[in-house]
Every structure is written in C-alpha cells, then in structure tokens.
Amino acid sequence: MSRNLELSEGEFYHIYNHGNGDRDIFLDDSDRWRFVKLLYLANSINQYHFSDVSFGEEFDIDREELVTFIGAYCLMDNHYHLLVKEKEAGGISKFIQKLSTGYTMYFNIKYQKRGSLFEGRFRARHLDDDPYLKYIFSYIHLNPVKMIDKSWKENGLKNLSKTQKFLEGYKFSSYLDYLGKNRTVNKILNKEEFPEYFINDGEIREEMLDWLEYDFPRGSTSGR
C-alpha cells in the first residue's frame, strides 16, 4: 500500500492512516464526533473553523464545492478508513491535509500534546476493479468487529448475533447510513458517485453476513 501513489481523477481509493507509533487517536466519543464532523467540513474548497460554526449546526453548512467524494468511512481507536473517489487533481490530498491538520490541532490542544499525531502521510490503495471496490466497501464496514472479537478472521466468530447487533449499533462508521438510518451525518456521503451495489438494507445485511461467515484462510487478516 503506497504513500506515493499517484491519484487519478474519477478513480476510487481506499485511504487510511494510523496514529504515530500506533497510538490511539480517538480517546473518547467526543474525539470521534469531532473527526466525523471534520469529514464533512474539510470536504470543501472553503475553510471552516469550529469557532465560526454553531454547535449542532455543523452539517447545515453550505460547502459550495466539494474537493473529493466520500463513499464510506470507519473510525477505529488508532486508525481510520475511507473509501473515496478523486473528484479533481489533488482533491483527496487537499481533503486529507485539512482533515489531519484540523484534527491534530484539536487533539494536541485537548490533551496537551505536541508534534505529529498521525503516522506520516496517508496511505492509499487504488481500487482498480469492481470486485475489489465492493470488497473494500465491506472490509471498511466490518472493521469494528475487531473491537469485540479481535481474531475473528483467524479463528471464526464467537457469536454471530452479538456481532451483528454490535455493527448495527456502532455510530462511527457509514454502515448505518447504508442501512437507511436517518442521521444528519449521512450528509458526509456522496453515494451517487459510487456503484449502487445494494438496493436495500436487506441486501447489505446479507453481504455483511456472507463475510462474517466466510472461512478466511488461517493467518489471513486483511487484503485483496
């Protein structure tokens, strides 16, 4: 997975980054909500500051023109995942720079830290065919399973119904938006720019179930 991959207009990418030294970058839910709000506010040609936005109205801002398209996201304790589409040359890089800078400033002030929060420049993988893109969509939304069953891919799920319930209650990913939940944060997504793999919530639940029950090769943790 390259940090120096050239990003092309109209192409899809899996973007992620870890905390520096694998440190946690989200220490509580207020941190997670801050990052989620930045996913919306940073995706604009304009610059917004939280001090200029009324609390609770972050998703009412008219961003005018976006710099990238977002299809999915997920926050973990020490990293994040994004599924994005390059709208214009340099758009993804501009977005991630604004997102990372804004969140790092918030984090360092709140926790009285200094220096880099993230592990260098973001990583990107080109999703160059349809099956791969669909797989990454599922992969991103299944990431939170590791929070309750760390070795589920290696050893199989301990409790399927508990896992499904956990995924449908996890607020810090876009999975709920694809299940049709009415949330203000669904404004983050630009679904019209991505393939419509699932017509309804039943189909996406079925896709997640297929992966949860999939017999991964022993030693497999991720990947294509």
UniProtKB/TrEMBL annotation:
The record's annotation in Pfam families points to: Y1_Tnp
* Segments forming domain Transposase IS200-like: 8-143
Q: Which superkingdom, per the lineage?
A: Bacteria
A GO molecular function assigned to this protein is:
transposase activity
Q: Name one GO biological process term.
A: DNA transposition
The identity of this protein, by name, is Transposase IS200-like domain-containing protein
